[in-house]
Amino acid sequence: MQTVLDANTWETCQGIRQRQHRLGLVCAVLLAVALLGLVDGLQGLMRSGANTLELLPGKTAALSGPLTIKNPVMRDIEVSFTPAGAPLNFNLEGFFAGYWFGNGMWRGAVSAENQAEPGEYRMRVAFRGAAASTFQNYTVQVHADANDMRAHSTSFVLRLTGVNPFVLAAGFVGLALLVGVGVYRQGSRLIRMLVRMGCGEVVRVQEEKDGVRLWCFLYGSRPPYEGTVCAVITTEGVVLAHARAGTAAKGSLQLFISRRAPAQKESGPVQHESGPAQKEIYFAVRPGCLVCLRPPCSQSPPAPTS
Question: Which of 58, 82, 74 has the alpha carbon at shortest distance from 138?
Fold first, then answer.
């Protein structure tokens, strides 16, 4: 089987692989930043507590909690603040079924007055006729201004950038998805190039007693007949070894490189060595190498002229 391909074809293939690799690294970095933002936001919530609200004067925060009695009405809920006369207000918006298990929930909003003094306040939510053990207690932290809230945040990302860590994580995930589209497009282009070259990509290598067994993707191409000898090459076109085709299943072809098989001469950029160096090259097959399944596709002939 001839493995000599046009030098420009190899360069194009390598260029596609390099761009896909770079985009993949960028995507991985973006996802890592998103994960760090998510972890930072979660640890901030754990440190501050789920029952802690942070407010600025004149601002409002949404709040919800479970119902502790059946079929309540608006007047059954009782909200009190500590100390008495705290510059806070509570507005009950209504009752609804929980998103996860359908349990009864209440929804409301806590607001701080425009002239509220900075400090920590306590809020208790209770239902008329319910046991004292069902009271729901919250801490409302009123800050002097946005800079003070940022400085006292339990989130490192928020203190450093002023951006909510969950918003940062969502933004970087969106960017990673966009870059991932580029990775996918480069991968599709590479597959089309490999199909034109008549090659499949090695995805798995397994050392055995008598040789090396490997699997390569066919990318929709017809597999060679069982027993056909196929050259295994690097992405630069250097022949590493010759493998005998086996069975094909689920879009992949199984091949085997026998240690007893003598090296076959092959035209192309092959470096012939002897001794341990030859054996090392002969079996240096790794995932990402290529298998020549058939001769490369020829260019379409020009249209006949009259």
Answer: 82
Is residue 139 within 8 Å of residue 51, measured between CB atoms? yes
Residue 225 CA: distances (Å) to CA of 120, 195, 247? 78, 17, 9
Q: Do the Cβ atoms of 118 and 147 come closer than 8 Å? A: no
Q: Which long-range contacts (CB under 8 A, 24 or more apart) does 94-101 make?
A: 95/67, 98/66
| Closest to 163 measured CA to CA, from 150, 182, 178, 172 | 150
Average pLDDT, the chain: 83
pLDDT in tens, 135-180: 999 999 999 888 888 888 888 888 888 888 999 999 999 999 999 9
Low-confidence ranges of the chain (pLDDT < 70): 1-7, 100-102, 260-283, 297-306
- Which residues, including other chains, have CB under 8 Å from residue 178's CB and lie 6 or more apart? none
Note the pTM of the prediction, 2 decimals.
0.67
Q: Report whether 3 contacts 294 (CB < 8 A).
A: no
Hey, what are 273's tokens?
Answer: 């060595």
Question: 229-245: b or e for each residue (b if 16 or more CB lie within 10 Å)?
Answer: ebbbbbeebebbbbbbb
